[in-house]
Specification:
With about 300 residues, this protein is α/β, with parallel strands linked by helices. The protein has twelve helices and nine strands. A four-stranded parallel β-sheet has the order 2-1-3-4. It has a three-stranded antiparallel β-sheet with strand order 5-6-7, with helices on one face. Strands 8-9 form a two-stranded antiparallel sheet. Strand 8 and strand 9 form a beta hairpin.
C-alpha cells in the first residue's frame, strides 16, 4: 500500500521494535514511553483529522469511509498501541487509555482505526473491548483465555507456534497463522533484513506525500520570516504551545483588547515590552525597538 492509501501512528510501549518503522513515509509518528510529552500532540492530531473528515463526508453527503473513498482518495489511518497495560501505567497514558474507547468510536466511521495489543484480556477496558470489532488471540495459556478474548467457547487450542492463534469468522472460531517475516531464527539476521526492507520501502515511496507528522517548532526563526505566513491586517503574536500553530490578532483590535492582552501577558519587563511592541511599527519594527529598550 502507498502512503496515500494507509497512514499509521505507533505507540510502542512494549519491545520498542516497532519504532523501526518510523522512517517509512506511511508512518506519521512512532513514540515510546520516553516520548510521553508528545502524547497530547498525537491525539490532538488524530482528533483534528476526525473533525476534518467529518466536514469532508458532510460535503460529499456520505457517512461511511468506504463510500467516500470510492469518490476521492483518502488514506486509512491506523493508531497502533503496542502494550496497552504499560501505556496505561503512566500518568498521562492512563488518562488517554481510560477514554480510548471514545476515540475508537469517533474515528471508526471516518477510516481511523485502532490496533491495541496486550498480554491478557483484562488489560483492556470493557468499553474498549466492546468498540473493537475484531478480536485475535495468540499464544494464550489455555482455552479459557481464548474464550475471554473471543467471547465464544472453544474446544480447540492452537499449538504453540509463533504467529498461530484463533479469531472469529462468521461467528465461528477459526485458526489462523500470521506471516513470518524471516525464516531465519537468528534475531540479528532478522533485524538486519527488516532494516533493509524498510529502507527499500522508504525509497520506493519517497515521492509520495508522507503521513502528517507531529508539529515541531523550529529552534530559531526570524521575526520577518514568521510574519510572512500572515495576511494583511493581522498582528503576529507568536506560537500557541498547544497545537503549535502560529497565531495572530486582527489589526483592528481596539485599546480594550490590547489592554486585556497586556493583563494576560503578565508583569515582567519582557512581557510588557512585547505587549507594547504590538501597538506600533511595521513588520515588527515596534517589537524590535521595545525589545531593545528603545521608546516606541
Amino acid at each position: 500500500y502507498t502512503p496515500e492509501e494507509v497512514n499509521f501512528y505507533i505507540l510502542d510501549y512494549s519491545s520498542k521494535l516497532l519504532t523501526r518503522f518510523k522512517n517509512v513515509p506511511h508512518c506519521g509518528a512512532a513514540l515510546t514511553d520516553e516520548d510521553e510529552k508528545e502524547l497530547p500532540l498525537l491525539f490532538e492530531l488524530i482528533e483534528t483529522e476526525v473533525k476534518r473528515r467529518q466536514k469532508l463526508f458532510a460535503q460529499a453527503e456520505v457517512n461511511r469511509f468506504e463510500d467516500y473513498r470510492r469518490m476521492k482518495p483518502l488514506p486509512l489511518v491506523l493508531v497502533i498501541i503496542d502494550g496497552i497495560a504499560s501505556f496505561g501505567s503512566t500518568k498521562l497514558g492512563a488518562a488517554y487509555a481510560s477514554r480510548i474507547h471514545e476515540a475508537m468510536r469517533k474515528g471508526s466511521a471516518y477510516g481511523i482505526k485502532y490496533i491495541l495489543t496486550g498480554g491478557h484480556n483484562n488489560q483492556f477496558t470493557l468499553r474498549a473491548r466492546q468498540e473493537a470489532n475484531v478480536h485475535l488471540g495468540m499464544s494464550l495459556k489455555d482455552s479459557y483465555d481464548y474464550f475471554d478474548v473471543l467471547g465464544k467457547k472453544v474446544d480447540y487450542q492452537p499449538p504453540k507456534i509463533p504467529g498461530r492463534g484463533l479469531c472469529l469468522w462468521d461467528n465461528r472460531p477459526l485458526e489462523f497463522q500470521t506471516a513470518v517475516f524471516s525464516a531465519n531464527a537468528d534475531p540479528a539476521v532478522t533485524a538486519q533484513k527488516l532494516r533493509k526492507e524498510l529502507q527499500q520501502i522508504a525509497e520506493r515511496y519517497a515521492d509520495y506525500t508522507p503521513a502528517p507528522g507531529l508539529p515541531v517548532l523550529p529552534h530559531e526563526q526570524l521575526y520577518q520570516d514568521f510574519c510572512r505566513q500572515f495576511g494583511p491586517g493581522r498582528i503576529p503574536l507568536g506560537i500557541y504551545h498547544g497545537p503549535r500553530q502560529a497565531g495572530g490578532h486582527a489589526a483592528q483590535a481596539d485599546v480594550h483588547h490590547i489592554h486585556l492582552f497586556w493583563q494576560q501577558a503578565g508583569h515582567s519587563p519582557g512581557d510588557r515590552q512585547f505587549a507594547a511592541g504590538l501597538l506600533c511599527g511595521k513588520d515588527g519594527a515596534g517589537y524590535r525597538q521595545a525589545k531593545q529598550g528603545q521608546p516606541v
